[in-house]
Structure formats: C-alpha cells, structure tokens
Amino acid sequence: MQLIVNILVLASIYALIACGYVLIYRVSRVMNLAQGELMMLGAYLLLTTGSVFRGNAILAVAAAVVLSTCCGILVYIFLMRKMTGGSVLAAVLATIALGILLRGFMILIWSAQQQYPGQPIALVSTAIILPGGARISTFAAALVAVNALAYGSLFVFLRFGRWGLRMRAAGQNPLLAAQRGIKLHGIYALAWALSTLTGSLAGMLLALDSGLTANMAVLGLKAFPAALVGGLDSLLGTLIGALIVAAAEVLSIQYIDPLLSDVMPFLVLLATLIVRPWGLLGTREELDRV
Amino acid sequence: MSALLSVEGIQVIYQRAIVGVHDVSFKAQAGQIIVLLGANGAGKTTTLRAITGFLGLDDAKVGQGHILFDGTRIENLPPYETARGGIILVPEREKVFPNLTVSENLAVPVAYRVTRSERMHREDLVYEMFPRLAVLRRRVGGLLSGGERQMLGLACALVSHPQLLLIDELSLGLAPIVLEALMQQIVRIRDELGIGIVMVEQNAVAALAIADYAYVLENGRIAIEGLPQDLRKGDQMQQSYFGGSGASGQRSYRDLKRDARQGLFDG
Amino acid sequence: MSDNSLTTSSSGHRIHHQGHVRSLRWTRWVPFGLLTLGLVSFAFVGSPFTLDLASQVFLASIGSLSLMLLTGFAGQISIGHAGLIAAGAYVVGIMSREWHAPFWLTLPAATISGGVLGTIFGLPSLRLRGLYLAVSTLALHFIVIYAGGEYEAWRGYATGITIDSPKIGEWEISSELAWYFVLLGAAFMTLTICWNLLRSRTGRAWGAIRTRETVAEALGINIARYKLLAFVISSSITAAAGALFAYNRNFVSVEAFSLYLSIQYVAMIIIGGMGSLLGAILGAVFVTLLPYAIEGTVGLLPHAERYVNELSALNYSAFGLVTIAFLLFEPRGLVGIWRRLQAKGMSWPSWNTH
C-alpha cells in the first residue's frame, strides 16, 4: 500500500513538471531543458516571499506563484521570443544556456545551502495516516491534489476554452494560425507562463516537504522521460507516462537496487525510444530507415 | 471610388536570386471579383503570398513596387498584420486544422473590431451558405473530403470578417458540380457582404464565369487583362486556354508555341 | 573554396585568384608555420602551470571538435559529452586496474566503446526527425554515470580509480611537458581527421542534411544513416578524449562528469561559432580559460576571500550569459567576429577560407 502511495506522489511530481515540457513542445516544438531550473526558481521565490510575508502562508505562496509566472513570461519575452523564427536547434540551445544561467544566479542570490521555505510561514510537514497503514505527508498529498487540479484545468482549458483552442491550432499549423489572426507570440508567452506556473508549484511543494537544495533541478530532467513516454504533445499521455516512470522507479528501488533511483527514468526513456519513440499517445512520427 | 487593393509594379525575389514575379500591377475594388489566371509557375500564387505576407517563409520578399491596401502600404508585412488589417487568404494547400473539428476550426479565427453578435451572425450565415458543414460539425478537419475542406476553408475565412478575400486555386481537385456550387456562393459573398475578392485560378472557364475583371499572368508578368467577355472572345485566350479554334482556324501546338515565343502575348 | 574563385579584396577590386595563387601558394602556409613554431617554442618557455593549462585547452579541443562535427555539421544536439568522456575514462580505468592493460590497448578500446555507445543511443533517436538525440544523450549521461558509480562501489573505490601514467618502454608520460606535446599531437590529429571527413562525401552529405533536409532526402541521401555515422564518429573521438583525460589526471571518479561538463562543450561550439572547425578550437580556448579569467578578476576585487565560495556560481552565470549573448547577438560566434574583422582588413588579408 505504501508503495502505491509513493508511486502516486512521485508520479504527481513528474507529471506536474512534465506538463510544462508538453505545453511548450506542443506549441513550438521546443524542448525547454531549463524546466528543472525554473521549477527551482519557484521554490526559491517562496523562500523570499516567505520571509517578506512572515506567518502568512497563503499570501506568501500566492505571491511566489505570481512572481514565478511572471518570470516565465519574462524568459519568453527577453530570450525565447528572439529565437522563434529561427531553428528549433538554436532555441533548445538557448534553453540549455538559460538553465545554467539560472542555476548560477540562484546560487548567487540564495546560496547553495539547504533551505527550508516552510519555516518562515509556519508550514510544517506532518504525516497523514491513510487506511491500510500507509503514510503520506501533507505536502505530498497536496502535490497529488494540485497535480490533479492542474491537469483538470488544462484539459478543460485546451478542449473548451477559446484560447486553449487557439493554442492547439497554433501548435498544429502556426502559419495558418497566424493567417487566422492569432498572435503567435501571445500563444507562446502563454505556454511559457503556464509551464513555469506548474513547474514552480511542483518546486514549491517539494521544497516545503523536504527542503530546498541546489540539486533539485535534476528532478526536472528526470521528469522528461514521463513526457516522452506519454508522447511529447499529449497531456493525457504525460499523465500516464508519469505513472509508468514513477512505478518503474519506486519498484526498482524497492526490489532491485536503491541506487537505481536516478537512472530508472532514463532506462525507461531509452526503452521508449527503441520501442515506440512517439510515446503512448503522441502523434506518430515518420521513422527513417538507417 | 479608390481601389481597395492596389498592386503596383511589384517584383518578388526568392532567396535574393530568383525572380518569381517581374512586374505585376492590378487593382481590386470592394464588391468586385478579380480573377488572376495563368499556367503553373506564372506567378499567381506568389502574387497572393506577396499580398498576405507569406513570402518570408520561403526566404522571398517584394523587391520593388508597392502594395496598397486601403491606402496603406503593406508589402513585406508579416501574415499576422495583414490578417489583422482585414486581408484573409484561403490557401491552396493547408487550409484547415486537421486535428480540430469543423466547429472548432470555425471558432479559431480571431476577428478584430467585430462584436460578439456580429461574429455569431456571421457564423450562422456561413452554416447557411454551406449546409454540409452544419452536418459535419463534429468531423475532424483531416477527415473531410476535398470539397468539404474547401468549404471549411472559405467558411473560416469569412468568419474572420475580411474586407478583402483572397482565394488560391479553389478549383483544384474538385468535381465540376461541387465547383459550380462553390462559385455560386462566392458570387453571393460578393453581393451580400460587399467585400473585394481576388481569385487565383487555373480553371479559366469557371473563373471567367463569375469574374468582374480578369488578368492573365505569364512568366511573372501580366500578359492580358480585360473583361471576361472580351477575354473569352480573344484569339490568344481561345487557343491557349480554351483549346478551341479561333478565327484563324486550328493551329498546331508547335505554331502556338512559336507565336508565343515571338511575343504574341505581350499585352 | 576552389582556387579559381573570384573574391573581392577589401579595397573592392576583383582579384582573380588563380594567377596569384600559383606564384604565392606558399603564403598560405605562413600562418600555420608561425603557429606551429609558436606552439612548439611555448613548450620550452612556459611554466608547468601554463603548460598544463594549454594541455587542458588541447584536450578540450578534441571534445569540441567532435561535438562540432555532430552539431555544427550534422545538425544534432548532444548533451551526453560528459557521459562519453566518462565512458572512455572508465574503460581506461577498469582495464588498467583489472588487467593492467597498457595504453595501446586501452585507448583503442575506449574509442570503440564510444562508438558502441554512439550506436546504442544514436540508432533509436536518429531515426526520428527532430531533436530526439538530445534526450537520448541525456539518458546516456545518467546511465553511464550510474554504471561508473556502481563499479566504484563494487570495487570499493571510495574516492575513485587511480591510474598509472602510460609508459612507452621505460619512459613514463607524466610531466607537463610530455603531456603538452601528446595532447597537442592528439588535437592536431583530431583536427586533421575532422578536416578530411568534411571534405569527403560524408562531409558533403552532412552539409546537405544540415542546410536542407528535405532536399538532401530527395537527392537520395540516407538521412538516418549519415546522422548515425556523425554521432558514432563523434562519440568515438569523445571517448578517446576521455581516455586521454583519465591518463592525464591519473584518476577517474564519477564526480568529474557532471552535466555541467556537457554544457561546457555545448557552450564551446556556440561561442566558437557553429559550423566551423576553427570555431570549435576558439570555443575550446575561450571556455577553458574563462573560469581562470573569472577567478583572476575576482581576485582583484577588495575582500576577494569572501567570493571564493561563489566561484562556481559565478562560472555558471558567466557561461550562461556569454552563451546567450552569442546566441542572440553573434550567432556565428567568435569565428563570425574574426571574419568580420578580416573583412574590414584589420588583420592581414588571408588567402585561406575555411
């Protein structure tokens, strides 16, 4: 039972982070390899807003959320916007450079020590005991809930919202979308905003749960396989992919070797590339024969 | 009445080297159907793309000349800007979103300076003009037949509330009956909405049937222009585009080409 | 470029090369000759520290040249360079510790292991259009690091594997001077290999794929095969560099191979200028020397001791900033700047174009 809880929690983490990959990939074919660092940025921002709004958890979290979304938009406006229209290769290289830049800045501003954003705002992790004897911390439970909420809202927005529809259209055929009056830069900025929002929510909750280290960005990379397994342009697929990757990781830690934890998602990634590269629910791509 | 669209002596250059259009000038008024005819490679589609700003993707640009829309110069503006200004294109190939349903396709276009009720009104009109689309509301764009896709392309263009509608090769791959019906609707669009329409066509017969004025392009220049009835009567048009015998009797293909080379088509 | 090309000199007159070149062909080699002379004499003039620094630059050039082959010419990103270097290093470490294998066995083995990894991780991803190699190499990195860590744990090497310096007969290659020449030679060899590859049919195919993939396909070029070839060759060279790295340090340990190392190589080719072998070398010089420059600058500030802890963060930030600046403002990299200066006639007019 505990295993299932662990899988669910890990899957929620991966899914929340990975939906950022999917959103940006879907509209612009760019793999945002800085997602891990953006996720950490959210957590660090919470640290700051926490010390500004001492004791007031809601305000601190809200402020951090708003700030990180703004950061996502700023990243688009000042960097990625200049890369649209060029090759996707250059854009992905820009995200790699961005990631390392953010990492440096974050250490410079907040130092590399382990931090606890929960302390200033009096949010402490407690364990909830579930039926069956499994334990889950409050923030882990929040992660699962927030993940469900995020995916639910995104599904509704993309499927039924007018601008969600336009996002999907822009992803399918940017040219035609532009001809139909859609401002592509607005769509891309929106994708980056939503992506940073979900990523930083994940980062914040993780930091509240188990502290904030400079190494958290690795989690962002481990979440990528979830997106690939599900299909880089499918949100539902990513949800399922996250479950698969999390299950593989948790079970292999339990039954094979604890050291496998960092590698397992990438073994799943490799297997996916070999067997079904477009993922479970992604658009099928043409395979060249070697 | 000053022209809605005025193309003045434009030259389009691909990749800084290849000239696709040498010197094309024409005008279009509101409430008129202008037709651009010509064989493959004559420069018709390039001209349309020059007007809508799609050239940049092929690394092409308008080298010389102007394009004026309602008095403003629009050459080399990006597609989003020209669409915003009211010039809407129904492209030759990818004209619908393949993974969106018909009704979703119709919801996508952003119509500027249009109220919500005006937009709903227009959508109703579109469903009334193309009843088949109403039946296919939930069908995904990629699964539509050629004719249905043309209808949807036209419908989406109309929903954007254009002032100038550009249509690229409407007749491609369409059965004559379907084409006939679509052409009727285009006449209706001109009459009811009073917008300007510029059509690029290879099917001269169908196009001339509804045109108010026509231009024939050849090798990137305008070879002939005139009213449809005049064009239909002219010898050259007969021979090249209608394949019938002109006043001078039947001529062999070889003679035709020889005359063409001797500049018989210089207008 | 052929010798018969017409070029415009900086003064605007058209010069027909052919006549000039026949009588002045030797001037082509003057810059190279000077450079070689300079590099060789530097060996006897420089201090051990600078010799070692230069050796690091040479070693980095090998990696950046191989990455340039892949990214600059075949158009694929790899963030697995650290993994490949690690693979080469570990092959050397394992073979020399377990079987006391000499370097003339371990070096080829390392190179082959690079090729094998290139095939395993390249084949699934290069069949696809798009940047799937990037994610594949991400997997490569983590899997290789894991394997290396497992080996160290299994053998109980808490801090890493120590390796003896390579020996030719009785002579041990361990001094800075010796390594200077070894790595200079290796870098030169790599440059020659890459240069010849690019002029071959393979190189032309890569160029075609990079500029217009659809056209290349129409011309009958098997895209996937050439992409895979680029990655396998690149991986082999990189693993060989890893082997040299292991011998140079006399030490292999997992901590040396972080993603940051891979990113440094990516930065080298961006800063140097994509699509140019000269750019790979310039980028390697820049990126290797940058941390030292930063450290030196920080040392000049008052209360320098306070900033010592921030050095790695400063390095990260500087790398990110410089790379982004080049991506945004100077996409042709240092080579682009160099060419522009050349065109303005600020350096002596060069007959080589590359």
Helix fraction of chain A?
Answer: over 70%
Query: Biggest interface pair, residues each?
Result: A-C, 46 and 53 residues
Strand content of chain A: under 5%
Mind telling me the C-alpha Rg of chain C? Answer: 21 Å
**Biggest sheet details of chain C:** 2 strands, antiparallel
Enumerate the strands of the largest sheet of chain C in spatial order, edge to edge or round the barrel: 1-2
The overall strand count of chain A is 2
Distance between the terminal alpha carbons of chain A, to the nearest Å? 46 Å
What does this structure look like?
- The complex is a heterotrimer of chains A (290), B (267) and C (354).
- Chain A is mainly alpha-helical and 290 residues long.
- Helix content of chain A is 72%, strand content 2%.
- Chain A has a single domain (2-275), classed as ABC transporter involved in vitamin B12 uptake, BtuC, CATH 1.10.3470.
- Chain A has helices spanning 2-28, 35-52, 57-83, 88-110, 138-160, 162-172, 174-179, 184-210, 217-230, 235-255, 264-275; strands at 127-129, 135-137.
- In chain A, strand 1 and strand 2 (135-137) form a beta hairpin.
- Chain A is globular, with a radius of gyration of 19 Å.
- Chain B has helices spanning 44-52, 79-85, 102-107, 116-129, 131-135, 146-159, 176-193, 204-210, 228-233, 235-242, 253-261, and strands spanning 5-14, 18-28, 33-38, 60-69, 72-73, 87-90, 164-168, 196-201, 213-218, 221-226.
- In chain B, strand 1 and strand 2 (18-28) form a beta hairpin.
- Chain C is mostly helical and 354 residues long.
- In chain C, helix 4 runs parallel beside helix 6 (132-155) and helix 5 runs antiparallel to helix 10.
- The longest helix of chain C has 27 residues, at 48-74.
- The chains are: A mainly alpha (290), B alpha/beta (267), C mainly alpha (354).
- Chains A and C meet through helix 3, helix 4, helix 9 and helix 11 of A and helix 5, helix 6, helix 10, helix 11 and helix 13 of C.
Compact description:
The complex is a heterotrimer of chains A (290), B (267) and C (354). Chain A is mainly α and 290 residues long.
Topology:
The complex is a heterotrimer of chains A (290), B (267) and C (354).
Chain A: H1 2-28, H2 35-52, H3 57-83, H4 88-110, E1 127-129, E2 135-137, H5 138-160, H6 162-172, H7 174-179, H8 184-210, H9 217-230, H10 235-255, H11 264-275
Antiparallel strand pairs in A: 1-2
Helix pairs in contact in A: 1-5, 1-6, 1-8, 1-9, 1-10, 2-3, 2-4, 2-8, 2-9, 3-8, 5-6, 5-8, 6-8, 9-10, 9-11
Chain B: E1 5-14, E2 18-28, E3 33-38, H1 44-52, E4 60-69, E5 72-73, H2 79-85, E6 87-90, H3 102-107, H4 116-129, H5 131-135, H6 146-159, E7 164-168, H7 176-193, E8 196-201, H8 204-210, E9 213-218, E10 221-226, H9 228-233, H10 235-242, H11 253-261
Chain C: E1 6-8, E2 14-16, H1 17-24, H2 30-45, H3 48-74, H4 81-98, H5 103-126, H6 132-155, E3 161-162, E4 167-168, E5 171-172, H7 176-199, H8 201-211, H9 213-218, H10 223-249, E6 251-252, H11 259-272, H12 277-300, H13 311-329, H14 333-343
Antiparallel strand pairs in C: 1-2, 3-6, 4-5
